Amino acid sequence: MPGWILTDNEREQWNQVPAKVAPFDLVTYFTLSVAELDLVRQHRGQHNRLGFALQLLTLRYLGFCPEQLAATPVIIVAYVAQQLGVTPNVLIAYGDRAQTRTEHFQEIQAYLGFRPAGAKELRALARWLLERALEHDKLKLLLQMSCDRLFVQKIVRPGITVIERLVVKARGRAQQETFRRLKLLLTPQRQEFLDELLVYDDSLGYTPLTWLRRSGKSNSPPVICNALTKLAFLEQQGVENWDVSQLNPNRLKSLALLGKRATNQALQRAPVIRRYPILIAFCRQIYEEVTDEVIDALQLLFSSNLCSRSPRLGGVSSGCCYGHQ
Q: How far is 325 from 130, CA to CA, in rounded Å?
């Protein structure tokens, strides 16, 4: 479904207590303090005490309380029940009266210093997410960062679908903002150049994008010649002077990586607000990488005295060039 990040199974896992809890975590996060035991014992009925304790502990552990409290792993229920001196199966009766569970959760929030994720909190999270989305492009990473953010701020995490929608929206806004920041670079001539990177070239046998992606695996003169040709090809477009300083360096690297990995077909199908920033970042990154490769290769050749035995290292012949001298 559009706007979703997780599969149904993944979403179910995000909304529950982890099925497996390490012994250390069980003791660390599910042991009731003396004060907490006193608070729990103020409530009547074994089922209410166990349910109240589990709500308290899961909120403290996860930053939210699973809707299906009865689905809490047996090992956790048994461990908490033992501390209260009750039998685990009494949990079945908890929540028969929805108002009781709601009142308990409100009391627990106040005790732990948590507050609900209201409209104000979600707007603040959306603003924060936009800044993170301008740094990172991975949806699941942004999802995890959002949940961590809410936990640190002691805001009760809403259903994971709410966070999913915020993340997807933030990434869309980040793409628009990235395009806006690079718009001055997108002259008609430059757009034509970027589009041509994705067009099959008969003389190469593949697209210019594929050609730029392929790095030499040796320091031989033909490989260096090919690298110099790439630099000349990019310098004709002034790639080395493209101002991308308005983009976060992490964002720039992320976009460049997409340019290296995405297929030509995928990039051709991508909307311009997505395609052009990827190709701009890719060209800038490739220019720097190829420049470094050439410098390293030449230094190695000179230091090993190979330069004197390599024919015409300083020249770029038409036979190894992509249409440039």
A: 45
